[in-house]
Model the fold of this input.
Amino acid sequence: MKSILFFLSTVMVIAAEVEFKGSKPPPTLPDGAFSVVVIPDTQHYTGKGCKGSLASDAPVENRHLGSQVEWILANKEAQNIVFVSHVGDIVEKNRAEEWAVAKKHLDRLRGVVPFSLTVGNHDMSSKGDAHLFQETFPASSFAKEPWYAGCYSHSRPDQNVSANNVNSAQLFKAGGVDFLHLSLECNAPDDVLKWASEMASKHHDRRVLITTHMDLGIIEKPKTNEGYIRDPKGRMKWTKIHGERGNSGVQMWEKLYRKCPNLDFVFSGDQSRVTALKLSAKADNGHVVTSLLSDYMSMPVLRLMRFMPAENKVQVLTLHVPGGFLVESTPYVEHADMHVFELAWEPGKSVPETKDSAK
Done:
């Protein structure tokens, strides 16, 4: 069933009653630029056993994720895509049928572009059991990749928690800049943050990018449904996973991000009714770390981070894949400058200070 109808600059996604607006195609990639693609939450599964209006007797599928991966493959050269990161909530119900579909689509990236997968709250139990993710995307399936730098491990009996690629590291180089990327599970506990800190220190000569599931969003856990839309926004102070061991966005900032002298960006998702948010804050050494939330309600949207070393900036674009346009307005975020904007960035140096921009 075709769920997306394109009317000039407006796309209405009938199944989820979501309207995204935009009219401009992505501008041509500037000379010397390269792209890091961020895939927002991909929970839009349809078929047997799926949620609400998406349920039917049809086989389980995720056409949105399929179209996102297809776009990445078709545009790898034109957009000079050097890395792909998924912010988590890869699946909706954490069941084998959905993981099989996710694997079918995401495995198409293998051998084409380095990529990482972040474990969100929908991808594991509230206690952090991620055994289905581990069975689908184990560390062993990445071990031969030259860009795979390993994962956090521990010797505790609960090997379904945190280990075996649930927290992972990747290395890549583009535009003469060396990068370390870390995927950290939702509400990563202290032992995981210690590993991440050690990885960043070990690769002190690289710029660091981190993807985690919960960072920006509604600051305090909302007490009403309206609160998930209207309550004050910023770095989150509440958690969903790991109980008392789980770290909130604020705690991850205090324990890891602000202490990492080579960290440039933190990517996150989780907050669909916040949708898009940006916040820049000074780390302990005075450079600026920029956090970016993108959760476009599981619709077929990609966040393109265009790094431009020659111009000392990053161009951030939000692309509606089937519509082929840059998103300018969503039901919860009507301001275009939250979906398409530029950020200062100096490769190999501390990022210049910018004004905090959480709105």
